[in-house]
Amino acid sequence: EESPRLLALGGDRELRDLTPHAGQALHETSCSITADGTTIVTSWRSRRRGGRFDRVLVGIDVASGEHTVLADEDGIDYVAPVISPDGTMIAVGRNFGGDYERLLAESVQLRRADGSREPVLADLGDVFPHEWAFSRDSRTLYVAGDLHGRGAVVAVDAATGAATQLLAVDASYSFLCPSPDGRYVYALRSAALLRRQGIDLD
Q1: More confident of the two residues 194 and 85
Q2: Adjacent-strand bridge partners of 156
């Protein structure tokens, strides 16, 4: 059976399948790995009634291969998890696709990796998020998204979810990469009349 897998390469150069029974659960998902390589957090397609799928959030212990469901809500997709550099926080997209009574909604949820605190949503205002990255000290989350037809980058306090600064609102930004000293956020900037170019946001 051909399907996406997560594999670990050990010191003996042998590949170990961490998701042997995944089937199509990892199809069109993404994952993040802690800096020490001990834990993977990934989206996981979970089958629902009526042939529907939601993406839940799963943690995988690399040493044992044990899987732990971190977040599972009916009708909600958890997408694009990112683990903070210090391994204490997880930023993940929490998306609702909409129904006959409610509009679609896309947000970024901040979770303690150890589950010691209730998750909080990043206060993004009208920004429709599509990408996020932690600062090197793990204290700030930078979120790029759409704001009233333009691109924007918002800085968010990783502990509280409160927005602390609107860094840009004049183009579309992608591939966010905070500098090690925390002074800049490097990104690719795209606009209708400009070719894509690398910039730094102060």
Answers
A1: 85
A2: 141, 163
